[in-house]
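**User:** You know discrete backbone vocabularies at least as well as I do. Would you mind producing a protein record, from residues through to fold? Write it directly below this note and I will take it from there.

**Assistant:**
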Amino acid sequence: MGAVCAAPGRLWGGPGGVWGRGGAPRGEGLSVGWCPRTPGPLELGRGGSGPPSPRRGLRAAHHSALQNKIVDRCERLQLQSAAIARHVDQVLPAKDQGVLNAANVARELVIQRLIFVGNACENEEQRLLEKVHVEEERAQQSILTQRVHWTEALQKLAALRTYLVDVITNLDDQDLVRAEQDIFERTEVAEGILEPQESPKLNFNQTCVQSPLLHRLWASAVLCCIAGSREIHIDEKTVSPHLSLSEDKKTLTFSPKKAKVDLDCPEQFDHWPNALAIVAFHSGVCAWKVSVEKSYAYKLGVCYSSLPRKGSGNEARLGFNAESWVFSRYDKEFRFLHAGHPQAVELIKSPAEIGVLVDFVGGEVLFYDPDSCTILFSHRETFTEPLYPVFAVAHQSISLVQ
């Protein structure tokens, strides 16, 4: 048990101290274990000894807590500094070396792949040029053979004609009758000589240069070089009464309710939900993109200006005549349509945009997914008239992409 401290009033300033008269808490005697503490430096510096006031006790506690916070803060700053120093001294140099290594690997990868592509292109070039050479020689040999054959035929016919003229001129009636069998045999040979007919063997076969590798490389190169879509606007005079055209002339919206047909406008499609672009093209390579993510029923592609505009027959229906080439979607079914001969297109997912690429001189129309540059379908054709971009929509809307 602790000792009892006597005369607390005198130790803490006598009567009238903070504990009141007698030096102890009023109404309480001295208790075992209780002993006034020695005044701290802060208290002695502020007016000597005496029992601590509640305010001084709070200041002391705050002072201690503040000291602890500062110490904690110093420790955290030291740890933070150590982490930063480690980052600067160890992590960043390692990152720098990692970047150098990754860049070297990337360069090597680019070089290796381009070398591989280059070698593949050189091999494909050699193979295709050899096929062109072989096809050229074949066609020329066919022409030479035909030339020899028809030259001999001309000689036979000329000799027969000379013989017949000589017979008519020099033989009398009796000799002419006696020569009838000979005349018949000779003319029978001439009758066996048929007239020349058009033969594909006399033409150069362009399919000899068909190459999936070259086709995809060419299409990818063209698509990468053509930035965005061709500046195309839809001709409002051609817009079907089932469609409405936006102010910027780039969006077509379908309406089941048919608007009034303009009888004084021969350019307007009066039945099928079609529309044409304003300007046609007749040379070079052209491409444009169409946003189709909102629609489950649309067609887009190219057509001749001679495409009929009136009536509900197939002659004005996109893809069901010889004047239009379109990529079509109806619900989950994708097809290429031309001259009424649909060809199914199998897709893993429905594209949000579809690009149309046309090589007028090369004779090809190609549909692709701009996001992945994946070729959806391609068709070869010899175009004989200027081509108009053409559109149709029977659900929601489609828009030309700038």
